[in-house]
Write a structure and sequence with these properties.
Layout: E1 3-7, H1 11-23, E2 27-31, H2 34-41, E3 48-51, H3 60-70, E4 75-80, H4 85-94, E5 98-101, H5 106-119, E6 130-133, E7 138-141, E8 144-147, H6 150-160, H7 168-174, H8 180-201, E9 207-210, E10 214-217, E11 221-223
Parallel strand pairs: 1-2, 1-3, 3-4, 4-5, 6-11
Antiparallel strand pairs: 6-7, 7-8, 9-10
Helix pairs in contact: 7-8
Length: 224
């Protein structure tokens, strides 16, 4: 059964699409924004994403290359109202597998999804790659693995999906607080995580602290 994530801010249209695909035997989830999409991806396995470009919080053309970096094995199908030839070329060059335009018959969409699912295979991460396994809450490097707490896993995932430093306030909010002392809790979490990585992985965590800006990764992570 193909696991499909529909990323579309038109709730009625997304609902009709999901109903049609579900009737064809697919497991379907919905996300109405890029933020909801990244959150859904952190919760489970998705085989194919149907991505609208006009999202309320992030342009789809910015999502595509980041998706390709973080989830290279996922099938990525763009479904958008942007029908211009230049947009089609850009979408495909950025990494979309298929670029379809609205309106479309759902039977045709399903055929594209099923063709994509048959040929998409997740490649093995290259040696030396940092692998963050969300469902298992583990961090892996060159075959060595450490277990993560829920907050440690959330922290690393937040840094992985952001290309810029993540402010301490945003990290603290994700940990269930936003007071000044929660910023210190973030620093303590980072301290423990660095220590755990050195001990369990034999390597320093590729974590950069920018004064006044927050934390970022200095090496790419692969999400699995």
């Amino acid at each position: 059964m193909t696991q499909i994530l529909i990323v579309e801010d038109n709730d009625a249209y997304a609902g009709d699409m999901a109903e049609f695909l579900a009737e064809r035997g697919h497991a379907v989830a919905l996300a109405s924004s890029a933020g909801a999409m990244w959150a859904a991806l952190s919760q489970g396995q998705v085989a194919v994403i149907v991505l609208d470009l006009g999202l309320p919080d992030e342009d789809g053309f910015d999502v595509i290359p980041r998706m390709r970096q973080l989830y290279p094995g996922i099938g990525l199908l763009v479904l958008t109202g942007r029908a211009a030839f230049d947009n089609r070329i850009l979408g495909l060059r950025l990494g979309a597998d298929h670029y379809l335009t609205k309106p479309i018959k759902f039977a045709e969409l399903a055929a594209h999804i099923e063709a994509l699912e048959r040929r998409v295979r997740a490649p093995e991460p290259a040696p030396g790659t940092w692998i963050l396994r969300m469902s298992a809450r583990q961090l892996e490097l060159t075959g060595r693995v450490i277990d993560l707490t829920e907050k440690e896993c959330h922290f690393l995932h937040l840094l992985t999906i952001n290309t810029r430093p993540v402010p301490r306030q945003l990290i603290a909010a994700g940990m269930g607080g936003a007071e000044l002392e929660d910023g210190r809790r973030v620093d303590m979490l980072v301290y423990r995580l660095r220590k755990k990585a050195r001990s369990g992985l034999g390597c320093d965590l590729p974590l950069r602290s920018a004064y006044g800006e927050g934390y970022s990764l200095s090496a790419g992570f692969t999400l699995a």
